[in-house]
Write a structure and sequence with these properties.
Blueprint lengths: L23 E3 L17 H15 L3 E4 L24 E2 L2 E4 L5 E3 L4 E9 L6 E10 L2 E10 L2 H5 L5 E2 L4 E4 L12 E7 L12 E2 L4 H7 L4 H4 L14
Parallel strand pairs: 1-2
Antiparallel strand pairs: 2-4, 3-12, 4-11, 5-10, 6-7, 6-9, 7-8, 8-11
Length: 234
Amino acid sequence: MSVQWPPRSPAFPVMGPALGPDRMARLDLSRDSPLLVGWRPGDMGELESRINAYLRRKGASAGWGGYLERRMLYASSPHFGESATTARNLHLGLDVWAPAGTPLYAPYNGVVHSTGYLEQPLDYGAVLLLTCNGEEGPLYLLMGHLSRADLVAHPKGSSFRRGDIIGHLGNDAENGGWPPHLHLQVIPDPGNREGDYPGVAPEAEEDIWAARCPDPAPLVFPSSPSGSMLILDP
């Protein structure tokens, strides 16, 4: 990254001030997670049921996690590669799992770089790429699995202010077929790339991608830059 990370200027929390760490539980969806024992890849209804049951047990309104997790969630979709050498299973963003329609907030002032609608199974669905104006220079963010209405409300080139509602979690008919959640990712300058950026990579390339896409936790939990204080047992 060419900008300071984590940013020196505190972000407005992407999930809003009302959905803070006291209302969220750390969610492990790695391939070794006890939550996924016996789960069949591709059964997203069952995945949603397991996530919701876990959050109820924790007394939480939302679940978060996933940065650099090695996952089996993508095994049912050829979009992520089919062989051991080409499969992409290393998750490069942070996920926040919450009900469809949950509002999302701009962490800084900025403009919409581009929008996209990626319909392949388990892709992003509706996605926004944002250029934020940080003290240290431009900060580029990807928000995936949104509502399609957000692409109309926030077209390419439109501006936003810190704390504005910038999107909403989409349902499974518009978010790539997933249980509702946000995929939040810090990305390099996308240049001419419009409305898309890899969110999953081969695990053998972890060092490369971790350098390109640092942990977005400071944008969800601005008071805990590393996110280390927020780790809870599954």
